[in-house]
Design a protein that fits this description.
four-stranded mixed beta sheet, 7 helices, two-stranded antiparallel ribbon, about 20% strand, alpha+beta
Amino acid sequence: MKNLFKSIFILTILCSGLNAHSQETLSNRQFRREFLNDINRVRESGCNCGGAYMPPVPPLIWNDNLEIAAIGHARDMADRNYFNHTSKDGRSMEDRITLAGYTFKGYKSFMAGENIAQGQTSIQEVMQGWFKSPGHCKNLMNPAFKEVGVAEYNTYWVQDFGGRVPFSAEQQRLLKSGRARLIEANRE
C-alpha cells in the first residue's frame, strides 16, 4: 500500500510538471515578446496587404483573456482534428473570446478578430504566412484592434484580436447621472 501511494504521488508530480511545462511553452515571456515585436514592427512602418497599402498604426498590447481564448481554440482544433474559425460545437470566435473574459460590457465599442494557421513550426514562419495573406494581414494592420493574444498547440496557431474603446469621462458622468442611457445594439 505504501509503494502504491508513493507511485501515485510520483505520477502526480510528473503529470503536474508536464502540465506546467506545456502551459509555459504556450505562453512564456519570450513567446509573447517575439509575437509583439514581429507584429508591432510591421504596424509601426505600414505594409501592403495584397494590393492594398495599410498605413502605420499604433502597436498592439498583449491581453491574457485573448490568449486564453486562443489557447482553447488551438487545443480544440488539434484534439478534434479540424481547422475552422467555428468550433465543432458551433461557437464563433466572438463566443470563445467573450467566454474567456474579454467582454464588451462597459465599453463604447467592441471589435474582435481572429487569424488561424496550421502546420507552421515557428513564430517567424506563421507570421510570414499571415502577412502574405491579404485577409490575415488586414487583421494584423487593423487600427481598431488594440490587443492580441496568441497560442500554438501541436502546430495549430490562433491569434485573437480585440479592440475596445472606453467611454470618455464626460460620457461616464452623463451615464452615472442618468442624463444619458445605453441602448444595446443588435449584435448579429
